[in-house]
Amino acid sequence: MVEIAICLAIIGFALVAIIGVLPYGMATQRDNREETIINQDATVFLEAIRNGSQGLDDLTNYVYAITNNWGQFDSSGKLLVSGTDGYTYLRAYIGGTAFTDPYLTNGFRIIGLLSTPEYTDPINGTPINNLLNGGYSNHIVAYVRSISGPAVEKPPQDNQLLQADSFGYRILCVNAPVAVDTNLYNPVLYHNGPPAYTKQLNANLHELRLTFLWPQLPNGSVGSGRQTFRTLVAGQILQTNVPGGGGMPLSFYQSQSFNNAP
After folding, report:
1. Which of 49, 75, 100, 121 shows its CA 20 to 30 Å from the CA of 32?
2. What's the start-to-end Cα distance of the chain, in Å?
3. What digits encode the pLDDT tens for the residues 159-208?
4. Hey, where are the domains in the chain?
């Protein structure tokens, strides 16, 4: 009996140790699965944005909201006004006005919003290279249900409870002009503006940065997952469409020839 009691005690200690380690193993497996999904989905969005894709309508099953937290600055760097524009499948909320027309109804609008330049002109909304003369700063955030992952969570699944429990994340999307020495814009040093080479570089080369934050939690916050993907895109960002209802212009990368100017 004594030997059996000792054996049971040893087995009990071993089981306690195994049970204590099990949650760490399951958490590691979950983290690895989520990172794999993020890496796969990042490839889809990077390729779609930098190629100016306009027919990826399947994205409407996964991108359920996009926001633009914008601010207008003057030439001294002072914030003049700020706000948030919001877009969903059912409606858009732009400049403080709600529009009930469906908005995120196709991939054209989704990619067009995600390609919004970081800096835009306050008058016509065209891309600008910096805020030295004032302008708008745009902060685009997409709310996404994972494209990769278990098939049971994917369309045509329309169970809202299952959709809410599926893995989701946010994307901070930045389309920034390539960094150059801002002294080149000093009118005292360069009376005719920056050199032609700098102008062409700013107009034809951009850095696309996608920062993924995950998981999207039911209370509206996000977990601790963070990963940023970067790529250089050779091409201009051009407006190709101004949607109805007063919406912000849609922008797309357009490939351009880049010549070494004197």
Report:
1. 49
2. 94
3. 877 777 789 999 999 999 887 766 666 665 665 666 666 767 777 889 99
4. 2-254
